[in-house]
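Tutorial, part two.
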Amino acid sequence: MMQDYYDTEWGMPVRDERGMFERLSLEAFQSGLSWATILRKRPAFRRAFDEFDPDTVAAYDEADVERLMADAAIVRNLSKIRATITNARATVGLRERGGLVEFVWSFQPESTPEPRSIEEVPTTSPESLALAKALRKEGFAFVGPTTMFALMEAVGIVDTHLVGSHRRGSSGVWTT
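Running the prediction step on this input gives:
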């Protein structure tokens, strides 16, 4: 499962709103947990959060929060569930200014890291710090700089595949 995700999905550009909202949501749920846990639960998250349709999630009410808190198939963290609903509403609000995808991609750095070992892979960047701050200003929650760097890696904004990896540059965003 992890190998398939790494080889086919992680680091590939995400340019659609639903896809970006899903990645943002799952990165928030991953905070403090392993990515393997979130990936195993991803089908349940998709069912529970209506395929991460921002309009649908933005309309969630307290009954939905209770339903989600009772769903043992997902991570039942009240703060993260409420943040996902808050972030859906903020995503809808960003549409009048170009949308979530354009907003997140606007923090793409001039260059991408070039790690030669796992120890050299950064966990934050000036851009992830700025993205986190800007998203919070727009009303988003659970969007710290480390979580936003993980999002930037996941959606291809930065390429932290090791130099020499068969995946390095495979997104087409970065040629090195």
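The two ends are 27 Å apart (CA to CA). In part three we will examine how such features are distributed along the chain.
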